[in-house]
Write a structure and sequence with these properties.
The protein has helices spanning 2-8, 24-36, 42-51, 53-56, 69-78, 81-95, 149-159, 176-184, 198-210, 290-299, 302-313, 327-344, 356-365, 367-375; strands spanning 103-111, 124-131, 136-143, 166-169, 188-193, 223-232, 235-244, 261-271, 274-284. The chain is of the alpha+beta class. It has a domain at 2-92 and 334-375. Strand 4 (166-169), helix 8 and strand 5 (188-193) form a beta-alpha-beta unit. Helix 6 (81-95) packs parallel to helix 12 and helix 13 crosses helix 14.
Amino acid sequence: MADFMTHFSIIKDPRIERCKKHKLLDILFLTVSSVLSGARGWEDIEDFGHAKQEWLQRFIELPYGIPSHDTIARVMARLEPNVLQQCFFQWMSDVMEAIEGDTIAIDGKTLRRSFDKASRKNALHMVSAWSCVGGVALGQVKTDEKSNEITAIPRLLDLLEVKKCIITIDAIGCQKNIASTIIQKKADYVLGVKKNQPALHDDCVQYFENHLLQQNGPPSAKTGMFETIDNAHGRIEIRRCRQSTELAWLPSAKEWQGAQSVLRVECERHSNTGVSREVRYFISSLPLAPERALSAVRQHWFVENQHHWVLDVTFGEDASRIRRGDAAENMAVLRRLALNICKRYVDVGSKKKLSNPKKLKMAGWDDAFRQRLIFTTGL
């Protein structure tokens, strides 16, 4: 319990003294343990506590037994989210060092059921940073609306150690100030370019479609191309990345701090229903290395299928109707904490790889497995 106390003891109890029946750290440990065992709401947490009270009392005192679901809900609604976020960042910095060359994908996710019409409260929107190599969430910040990702991304970057990493962001993050922040953090960027930057997008289209693709002969010293062919899920996917470090044609190149290249990524899918093509453009601080650039572009989608999708399907985040006070944000942090624990845990005694849903099931059933899951990952 020493590590748990170290990480969570900085959280200030929001309750007045005469109302403190159950210890704050007891409630937090109960909540983390139950979320790791598949609990999705306040009543689930209370039920887990009653079912596993003997196991819980190995680590926490619970002098008045298991708190009611109403008590748990009130405490989680009043906790200061920024302090809980600080605990998350501290834990991640302790258990995982920045990996040089890692691709860190930054993207936003809306908790769709967290809105409240009665109090005119919008659905919670979280911007997360996902380590594509480590396979864990490095941190997240809240925004009121999706459009505010532009202001949230620099705040998130300020909290992270991203030196020598590649930061990938979709088109909403294609902003000059975000590019400058990434360069100041001594990292590289690959930013999607769409029509929210109309001049840059049109310049990229004109350059690639009317100039570079019309050239005959081998690529010049400032251009390169890399192609991959995959055959899976009943379809063939061909991806071509054309990269150019020739930026003399781009009038605003000097305004994008650190910009060294532009990319054109074409994805061609062949299936029983026909052939489809998609073309995307990017601006990047990477030098000429189309294979590396294409890898970063593809890894960006890890934040969707390894992070957002798992939170919705395994942890039921999109369906959660938790919304009172700051409870939605605090539970979102604890779900990401639980996801990281699952991702980092490898059961050396198992003959087969355990999926995240199976880890949650086994944590709910097996006290010994739950104990290994929590305490062998640094928490």
